[in-house]
Every structure is written in C-alpha cells, then in structure tokens.
Amino acid sequence: MTTDADDLRRALEHMPVSSPSRRLRALLPVIDQRIRDGVSHIAIVEALASHGIAMSLETFRKRLYRWRKAQDQDRGSSSRTIPSSSPGRTPLPPPGHSIRNKSDLIAMRSAEIDLDELARLGKNKE
Questions:
Q1: Per-residue pLDDT tens for 69-101?
Q2: DSSP states of 33-70
Q3: CA 73 to each of CA 12, 19, 70, 77, 125: distance values in angstroms, whole numbers, following the listed order
Q4: What SS3 state is found at 106?
Q5: I want to staple 49 with a disulfide (CB 3.0 to 4.6 A). Which of 37, 54, 73, 92 is the partner?
Q6: Are 71 and 64 in contact (CB under 8 A)?
Q7: Residue 55 burial (C-beta neighbours within 10 Å; 0-12, 13-18, 19+)
Q8: Closest by alpha carbon to 107, among 115, 116, 118, 98?
C-alpha cells in the first residue's frame, strides 16, 4: 500500500503545471531575483513568451507588483508604512540636538518652526 502512495506522490510532484498563470506564479521568485540582478522586464517578458507564457509588459509588471505586495504581507513587512505621529504639535529639539532616530525626524516634521529663530541660527553658524 505504501508503494502505491509513494508512486502517486512522485507522479503528482512531476506533473507539469498546465495553466500559464500558475507557471508564472511558480517562476516569480526566480524572476524577482533576476530583476534585482539587473535583467530588464522586457527581456523577461520575451523569455516567458518564448516558453509559452505570453503577456504584455504592462500585465507582467502588474503581476510582479501584486506578487511582491503579497510577499511583503506574508512576511509581515511594514517597511513601506510610515508610523503616524502624534496629532499635537511638538516643539523642535533644542539647538545642537542631533537627530538620532526616525522619531526625531517625525517630531521635527510636526513641529512649529519659528522662522526668525531659524534665521538667527543660520547667521550664527556662518
């Protein structure tokens, strides 16, 4: 009985993927790496077409974008999102205070800027 199950498993593993969409989906990790290595989208679309997966450049780019987006969500990546800052305005850091992390930049973005003070500081640095 186990040999039948093993034979069936091997047969299923070696079955060709019939749908072009499924074949593309299986190739997307390799395609993504090749793009990161510098291969152009046009060259990839031409190679896919020569192997039976024909699509326009625009369609290829959309599928690649959607696949990458799904990969980011699967990994729980929030690298493209910017954390929201507090709704209230915070004062600028004191002069001479260096920016040490992203929250310092966010605080500076939401701070009220005294243009006269900024001009005075600029003149003092000259």
A1: 999 888 775 544 444 444 444 555 555 566 777
A2: HHHHTT--HHHHHHHHHHTT----HHHHHHHHHHHHHH
A3: 29, 25, 5, 6, 46
A4: helix
A5: 54
A6: no
A7: middle
A8: 98
The two structure tokens encoding residue 49: 């077409």
- Name the amino acid, one letter, at 51: H
| CA dist., res. 49 & res. 56, Å (int) | 9
Instruction: Give the whole-angstrom CA distance, residue 80 versus residue 73.
Output: 11
User: Coil, helix or strand for 90?
Assistant: coil
Q: How many CA atoms lie within 13 A of 71 on its CB side?
A: 10
Read off φ and ψ for residue 15, nearest 5 degrees: -75, 135
Contacting residues for 77 by C-beta, under 8 A, at least 6 apart: none
